[in-house]
Design goal:
With about 375 residues, this protein is an alpha/beta fold. The chain is built from eleven helices and 13 strands. It has two domains: about 180 residues, Rossmann fold (3-Layer(aba) Sandwich); about 160 residues, Rossmann fold (3-Layer(aba) Sandwich), CATH 3.40.50. The structure holds 6-O-phosphono-beta-D-fructofuranose. The site of 6-O-phosphono-beta-D-fructofuranose (F6P) has 10 residues, from loops.
Length: about 375
């Protein structure tokens, strides 16, 4: 059912930011304006929806933002159904829906990752509002889409970092362990590790064995290679950790907890790479150093690939809105941007499958993946 072409749509950006958010905002807004809609931007994710904070997004506002990193709307990880309000955590779903109605929205376009898909779907189911989800994350772990926006840009940053680490590792004959984001999945580490020619790539989908890694590194030494780069995804686990966690029913490694200062400020998370580097140095006798790329991977302008993808996803969303086609994610399948029902996406994480071609590719260029000597 087509909606009134003089209606209003809202856009929000939720979860961790990434390059390309502004490009998508521009794509959705320009496309929607083309079809005659008014567009408003809701600030700071679902918190802005609950607190009724929004700005008009006209042509002037979305002009010149295609290349800008971050999000002009601001983002937060707040969920409508579990929102910290003062000293309490409250279910603010009703208020979010009320504000959607008071803004006279015909659709709420939510740019975000897995959590955002779930929150958008929940608002639709509980509040009966129209939503659209656009898959954003450097982690590339959203179900039912070949790729998420932001991933290519982050992969470029991580690849460049690995390139740079190569030259300094070579000069000092060191092992450098580079920690790469990706949450519980290995897409970013595997992609940038292959692109940067890392010698060892460790991803959460393949539990690693330190003995295997040490043997691979020693083998490189014996063949005359006096440096090595180890790319480590932040969510990795060793075989022993997986076993211990299974026995104790624990889901995540304890050290993954972000350290907090007394006033609640998040401090730097202890890189898992530190522990791996220490073990490597002990087992091989080769000097090891650690680099954790952290939020650098989420900063700066999007790549040309992401700019094109973001513009395509955003304008496809505007087409779907004009057709009255809601409650879907706009995903990428092959060369097409297509609507995918939200129930197929919400709550499902896309891991690197064991038979993914990138894994075979890595093994064929003698990269150790931590489970067998390369
Ligand atoms: O989901 C994107 C991501 O950058 C993950 O790769 C990482 O684990 C997490 O967000 C970091 O979150 P925060 O910015 O809240 O520290």
């Amino acid at each position: 059912m087509a909606v009134s072409r003089n209606g209003t749509i809202g856009i929000l950006t939720a979860g961790g930011d990434c390059p390309g958010l502004n490009a998508v905002i521009r794509g959705v807004a320009k496309g929607a304006m083309h079809y005659g809609f008014q567009v408003i931007g809701i600030q700071d994710g679902f918190r802005g929806l609950v607190e009724n904070r929004h700005i008009p997004l006209d042509n002037r506002m979305v002009s010149g933002i295609l290349t800008q990193g971050g999000t002009l709307l601001g983002s937060s990880r707040d969920k409508p159904h579990k929102m910290p309000m003062g000293s309490e955590v409250m279910d603010m779903t009703g208020v979010a829906v009320e504000n959607y109605r008071s803004m006279n929205l015909d659709c709420l376009v939510c740019l975000g990752g897995n959590g955002t898909a779930k929150n958008a779907f929940r608002l639709h189911k509980k509040g009966g509002i129209n939503v659209l989800h656009l898959p954003k994350t450097i982690d590339n772990d959203v179900a039912e889409t070949d790729i998420t926006f932001g991933f290519d840009s982050a992969m470029d940053i991580a690849t460049e970092a690995i390139d740079r680490l190569h030259t300094t590792a070579t000069s000092h004959h060191r092992v450098i362990v580079c920690e790469i984001m990706g949450h519980d999945t290995g897409w970013l580490c595997l992609g940038s590790g292959i692109a940067g020619g890392a010698d060892v790539i460790l991803i959460p989908e393949i539990p690693y064995d330190l003995e295997v890694i040490a043997k691979s590194l020693m083998q490189r030494q014996r063949s005359g290679k006096r440096f090595s780069i180890v790319a480590v995804a932040e969510g990795v686990h060793s075989r022993e950790e997986i076993k211990a966690m299974a026995e104790s029913g624990q889901k995540k490694r304890k050290e993954k907890i972000v350290h907090q200062s007394e006033d609640g400020v998040h401090l730097v998370q202890e890189p898992v790479a530190s522990r791996i580097a220490r073990e490597i140095q002990q087992r091989t006798g080769v000097e090891a150093r650690v680099t954790s790329l952290g939020h650098v991977q989420r900063g700066g302008p999007p790549t040309s690939f992401d700019r094109l993808l973001c513009t395509r996803l955003g304008t496809k969303a505007s087409e779907l809105i004009a057709e009255g086609h809601f409650n879907v994610m706009v995903g990428v399948k092959g060369t097409e941007c297509v609507p995918i029902p939200l129930e197929k996406v919400a709550g499902i994480k896309r891991l690197v499958p064991a038979d993914h071609p990138w894994i075979q590719t890595a093994r064929l260029v003698s990269t150790c993946l931590g489970d067998e000597v390369a």
